[in-house]
Amino acid sequence: MSIRVQKTFEALFALEDLREIFRGSLPTGLDEEEEKAFRAKIADLKSIIAELEEDRGTPRTTMIADTIPLRSREEEYINIQPIQAAGRLTPEARKALISYGDGYSTCDACRKPFRLDKITKPSIAAFHEDLAKFVNMDQARVVPGARRGFQAVASTLVSKGDPVIVSALAHYTEFLAVEEAGGVVKEVPLDAGNRVTADATAEKIEEVVRESGKTPALVMIDHYDYQFANQHDVRGIAKVAHQYDIPFLYNGAYTVGVMPVDGKAIGADFVVGSGHKSMASVAPSGVLATTDEWAPKVLRTTAMVGDVTNRKFGIKEVEMLGCTLMGGTLLSMMASFPAVKERVNHWDEEVKKSNYFIDALLAIEGSKVLSEYPRKHTLTKVDTTGSFDAVAATHKRRGFFLSDELSKRGIVGEFAGATRTWKLNTYGLSWKQVRYLAEAFQEIAAKYDLPITT
User: Known binder of ligand: residue 346?
Assistant: First the structure.
């Protein structure tokens, strides 16, 4: 770790130690011993700052709580890990995490009716309204990840034995949500370009009705899948679903928060997004949005009454298990939201950067793109069997040679040891970083005598 990054972490930790002194003191102020500890920590902080300014010193802290290593991936490297790119926290989110990290900090000013989406200080209630507007739906709830959005909808709509239509590229969490509800997944096959079409969806629905005698309870399709990040015809699929009176769940795990999403224009009954994957939020976090038509069902409140105490909790929403995101998780999502709302307006630029890098990779002879091309997303699956894997065949480090070469150049996030098929994501990188990334791959190719077209 560079000494500047090291000292930055140490300064942050020293400030946290200062906070701890205040947390252990009386509201009237510091006592003599606390004041002494405060002064000592200030002196320590000044020393760290001096070392930071002068780019010198030795590490004082290498572990948190003796077992957790410092994570400097985002400070020291260009990170192309496919699921991390759009989940990087904004500075505002990191500040919110520092301030609201305590477990139930969101509940400081919770008043009747004692529900998360009703809290006004901080402005959680307004945030829920803004989330719904953001994806052009009527109501929204925050959930612990997109998977909990799938789960809420599936447990509401799917009964034992009900068929549910998903993509042949569906994420495993969609399968689990259906299985937990007692349903059965039915996959729509892909076309030659690994895409799901409206026609194929209609054919699958007809097949299911023919074979089971049941109309599917739900159609759940990703806009961009996690395997290739190919674009699927969600508007056409939503239209088909509605022709059969089947509700449509739009899986926006790779879209909500990175590109404009208009749920009603798409024809979605439910929009699910991932906070930690695409909304610059702490994990686990996500969003479930729905229309007023479906809200009474998926956001139903409890009717259960205790047989001894006669207790009832009518305002609590069953599928949300009352309240969902507390503390720093939710506040990070809220703090990043202004930046997230702005960045979706620059999606075209992000796609241009993605294609710039992919073009540079394709210039290395033997490299291929398995995702649709030109790219429509920043997540891409590539095949370097004919290029870097040819080097790996005779290299003493085998496939890990590429990881070694990239790491030397400050690039991480590729699948370590993978030189055949693997995924990467350029989202959020500046043009300077994207150009550096492209040059690095071509530089490595040239080092190992792989032909490069110009």
Answer: no
